[in-house]
Amino acid sequence: MPTLSLPLLALSLTTAPPTLADGLSFEMPVLQQRAAPASAEGAWVPAGSNEVAEDLPPDRPHTAVRLAAEAGGALTVGFAGMAVGAAVGSSTCGRDDGFDCMDNVGMGALIGAVLGGATGTTLGGHLAGGNGNFIASLLGGVAGGLTLGLLTAGTEAQGTAVALGAMAGHLAGYELTDSAPTR
User: Fold this and answer.
1) 77 has pLDDT over 50
2) CA 146, 70, 54, 47 torsion: positive or negative?
3) Using DSSP, how many helices (H) and how many strands (E) does the chain show?
């Protein structure tokens, strides 16, 4: 049986496949370093495979982590934007009759939530190593909210559908414009 030095054992199995006592043999994956730019540490790929390993930046987390950061940002900043929008909408109404200003408050809250959702998605994505686009996130949120709002028009679930559609649209718009490699 061939012997392996510690550096070879740490990096890869580069010897012939070992044979078991009963004559069955099995192959171990042999790893080799592929050529990489001088500034990057090379990626390891199985020898003989046709796959090209991606050179991912070490600070780029998994897609699921980035999606969670985007969703958390969208919810947090979206709710804050909704509150600010409702306050601004309320301040545009000169009357103190409360319910007479509900249209202004509702429209301000809706605009604030959409802008806040897109901003939160973009901030969360950028903090988690993404590089998507704010405008795409904004347009995706508007499209998603309108689509599900129209599909559920006249039902009790319309408000929830609009919120979920906008959230999904924000995330989809951001992710579709994220050009960095993913894991």
Assistant:
1) yes
2) negative
3) 5, 2
Residue 36 above 70 pLDDT? no
Residue where a domain terminates, one of 55, 77, 93: 55
Query: Same domain for 121 and 35?
Result: no
For residues 128 and 121, is the Cβ–Cβ distance under 8 A? no
For 127-145, write each residue's pLDDT tens digit: 988 888 999 999 999 999 9
Half-sphere exposure of 49 (CA within 13 A, CB side): 13
Enter the pTM of the model: 0.63
- Residue 59: pLDDT over 70: no
Q: Are residues 140 and 168 in the same domain?
A: yes
Burial bucket for residue 86 (CB in 10 Å: 0-12, 13-18, 19+): buried
Contact 166, 116 (CB under 8 A): no
> What backbone torsions phi and psi does residue 46 show, to the nearest 5 degrees?
-65, 140
125 and 158, same domain (yes or no): yes
Domain extent, residue 50, equals 1-55
Domain count, the chain: 2
Work out the pLDDT band at 40, boundaries 50, 70, 90: very low
Are 146 and 97 in a shared domain?
A: yes
Coil, helix or strand at residue 44:
strand
19 plus 76 within the same structural domain: no
- How much of the chain exceeds pLDDT 90, in percent? 43
> 100 and 169, same structural domain?
yes
